[in-house]
């Protein structure tokens, strides 16, 4: 899978942010893509994904031909990398018919419950324990914000996944993949 990152507009700040995303992705992409495969046993169905760095505080995974949107608000290199991993988790689920976020069903919580079954394990396999600890902070504080209406539910979903062993998370994920229906395993 190839990720093409570019600014949404020819704005100097967005060009700089896009370059920072490109650099952090280039330095880590092989390890992360290998970890996705090793942990989930799934392949990205899209061989090329386009990501636009935009002038907003949120990031979006996009879907199929809709570009991914990466926030262009000057966060750290680690945050940029976690943003890419997070949005790729959505893409991996969607590309394999496992996505719960659809135009008909906008359940952010359910989609994240699924992602939390493997996101931290991908980061751990690719980047180590220290980065996995930083991921938790990113996911629960930086991504959601302390005033998010979803914070309590996301915290519960994260803690539920983190209270499982790797084997338990993998078993749930494998059940999901086999069932092709998230409601059978959540």
Quickly describe the structure.
The chain has 186 residues and is mainly alpha-helical.
| Largest sheet entry | 3 strands, parallel
Number of domain units:
2
- Helix fraction, binned, reads 55-70%
Structural class: mainly alpha
- What's the helix count? 7
Oligomer state of the chains in this structure: single chain
Number of strands: 3
Order of strands across the widest beta sheet?
Answer: 1-2-3
Shape category: globular
The low-pLDDT segments are 101-106, 182-186
Q: Give the integer mean of the pLDDT values.
A: 85
Through-space gap between termini: 28 Å
Describe this structure in words.
The protein has 186 residues and is mostly helical. The protein contains 7 helices and 3 strands; from the N terminus they run βαββαααααα. It has a 3-stranded parallel β-sheet, with helices on one face.
Task: Output the keywords.
186 residues, three-stranded parallel β-sheet, 2 domains, disordered C terminus, globular, single chain, mainly alpha
Strand-helix topology:
Elements: E1 2-7, H1 12-40, E2 48-54, E3 68-71, H2 77-95, H3 108-115, H4 119-127, H5 129-143, H6 151-162, H7 166-179
Parallel strand pairs: 1-2, 2-3
Helix pairs in contact: 1-2, 1-4, 2-3, 4-5
């Amino acid at each position: 899978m190839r990720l093409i990152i570019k600014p949404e507009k020819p704005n100097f700040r967005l060009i700089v942010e896009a370059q920072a995303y490109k650099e952090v992705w280039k330095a880590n992409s092989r390890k992360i893509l290998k970890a996705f495969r090793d942990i989930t046993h799934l392949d990205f169905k899209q061989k090329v994904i386009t990501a636009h760095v935009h002038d907003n505080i949120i990031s979006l995974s996009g879907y199929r031909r809709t570009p991914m949107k990466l926030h262009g608000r000057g966060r750290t290199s680690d945050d940029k990398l976690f943003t890419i991993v997070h949005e790729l988790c959505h893409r991996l689920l969607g590309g394999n018919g496992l996505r719960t976020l659809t135009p008909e069903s906008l359940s952010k919580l359910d989609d994240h419950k699924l992602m939390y079954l493997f996101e931290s394990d991908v980061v751990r396999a690719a980047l180590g324990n220290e980065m996995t600890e930083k991921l938790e902070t990113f996911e629960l504080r930086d991504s959601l914000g302390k005033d998010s209406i979803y914070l309590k539910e996301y915290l519960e979903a994260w803690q539920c996944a983190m209270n499982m062993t790797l084997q338990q998370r993998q078993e749930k994920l494998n059940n999901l993949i086999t069932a092709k229906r998230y409601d059978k395993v959540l």
